Amino acid sequence: MTRGNKRQTKVIYKGQTQDFVIMVEDTAAVQSWRRDNSIPLAQVLDGWKIFTSHQHGAGGIHNEASRATIENEFGTSDDNEAILKILDQGEIQENINTERQGIRSESQGTRGMY
């Protein structure tokens, strides 16, 4: 069974020491929120976590940002304030996750051709 081919939209904020990434629903939702901040964040965000990519932009491995990292960059340990700044000043990037195939359950054993 194939998986993937899903559009993924991120907002990347280039910080002084780290790149910060948040996942959003889509580009239109972010642009609407930028015009009208009264739109609830629940309609814009695709999760409430802030990730760092260790200055690798949208690519690479994303790790959840620590409180200290957020506080050093944004001057607050409040995730909501940091998310607002990332949404307001970050760069929107869209990509499509490519199709993947693979074993869904390792308990089914090998599936190689003999």
Summary keywords:
114 residues, alpha+beta, Hypothetical 12.0 Kda Protein In Nam8-gar1 Intergenic Region, Chain: A, five-stranded antiparallel beta sheet, 5 strands, 25% helix, globular
Molecular structure report:
This protein starts with 6 loop residues before the first strand and ends in an 18-residue tail after the last strand. It has three helices and five strands, in the order E-E-H-E-E-H-H-E. A hairpin with a 4-residue loop joins strand 1 (7-14) and strand 2. The mean pLDDT is 81. It has a five-stranded antiparallel beta sheet with strand order 4-3-2-1-5. The protein has 114 residues and is an alpha+beta fold.
- Given as residue ranges, the uncertain stretches (5+ residues, pLDDT < 50) are none
Which whole number gives the mean pLDDT? 81
Number of domains: 1
Terminal residue distance? 21 Å
Helix share bin? 10-25%
What's the architecture in CATH terms? Answer: 2-Layer Sandwich
Strands, helices and their partners?
Blueprint: E1 7-14, E2 19-24, H1 27-35, E3 51-52, E4 63-64, H2 67-74, H3 79-89, E5 91-96
Antiparallel strand pairs: 1-2, 1-5, 2-3, 3-4
Question: What's a concise summary of this model?
Answer:
This protein is α+β, with helices and mostly antiparallel strands and 114 residues long.
